[in-house]
What does this fold into?
Amino acid sequence: MVNRKWTFGLVILVVVLSFSICLFGFMNRLNSDPTISYTVYLDGKLIGVIDSKADFEDYINSKEDELKKKYNVDTVYNPRGVEIKKNITYNPTISSNEEIYNKIISNKKFTVQGYQITIVSKDDEEEKKNIIYVLSKDIFDAAVENTIRAFVDNDLYDKYMSGVQEEVTDSGSMIENIDLGETITYKETLISTDEKIFTDVDELSKYLLYGTLDKQETYTVKNNDTIESIANEHKLNVQEFLIANPEFTSSNNLLYESQQVVVGLIKPILSVVVDIHSVGDEAREFDTEIQYDEDQYVGYQEVIREGENGLYKVTRKSQYVNGQLVSGTIANSSEIKPPVNRIVVKGDKYAPSVADLSYWAWPTDRPYTITSPYAYRWGSFHSAIDIYVGYGSPVYASNNGIVERIGTGCVPGYTKCNGSQGNFVLINHNAGGYYTIYMHMRDVNVTVGQTVARGQKIGTMGNTGDVDPVPSASNPYAGTHLHFGVYVGSAYGSTINPLNLF
It folds into this structure.
């Protein structure tokens, strides 16, 4: 019974003490003012309480001088995910600015004020998005203009932007419209400093042009290189090469050995769409008309009228995307001068390719002079006859056959061949092993494999090759003659006196 009374008394004592403590705390709060504080959350998680938001932000700015210098800004802001809420409490536990700052930088990067540029394009109905961060819209706008200028004639662009283009009537070009093929949106926002933030116009221009900030491949110019050959070697077209190397203005610009040029592949992020209106004179190429002469043998060909290009005035509407023509229409065309067609007469008469050994045709016009017979001459044997009629006079095939060889210079296997034989024709007569050769000609009018008929003109008499006397400025026709030889058995085989044929 005593114990039960003692227990009951203890409980009463505890209740009284607890009530007294609560009452004391309540009365103490009634006698003090509430405190304004700021609770700091990182990605929704409480990391501490600070007594002044402004002081904390000033502390951040004092600690992040490097970021301010790097981005040339006056203020650095809290990272994304940091939330500071105002509270009114009694006796909060306050963390130091340094303590909260250290907790933040161990998890997140601070931010700066700038713009998020979103570039949306469509490729085969698939949407492609590029996001670019800049401190100022002016940086992006200037880089876009540089990109446009890379693909557009700068003089035309300046006139277009200034609104001073003159209407093109007789000749010339003008820009009708410039647009970008992508949808571009701007959003002012806080940008985390762990993103790539563009602060330099030239750097952003390079990125918009190449689609990367990687160092572009270069090439050291070698002897005999041209802009076209270098571009082809590196899978560029000439226009792309000129864009990558703006110091050049034309594919005809000269290069020097050891010069460094950029050969990186251009992959623009933007599509610069330019509509051009142009007027100019354009050549209309002539056609070639073929006429056939049944009195001339197949293989005969003669140009009886040279062609001459015509001239048209053409108005074109052309659209270029990043410097490449993608569409073009002819809006108007008027003839200034009609073309004159070239006329070529060809033989239509067929001849057998096998000679009739009973009848041979003399290889030149008459009268003629045999200036050197089939005989020894100056200590060596002259295995043909030399015939003179006159410079440019016709040379004829002595019999039907097929042209086996034509050319200039020394005939392979020819006996005593110690110099140039000039322009020559070798004919295989396909009968009895006979071949005839015609040397020192001025012109050759047949082709290898062509069938020729007895008496058909195969060229003209001349003085090419090793002749005596040697032609000179004062006597350009010196040494004119036809060296006419006959082989039997094989080409360049045994020779016979050509006069035995007639």
User: Anything to note?
Assistant: The first helix runs from residue 2 to 30. Residues 411-419 have pLDDT under 50 and may be disordered.
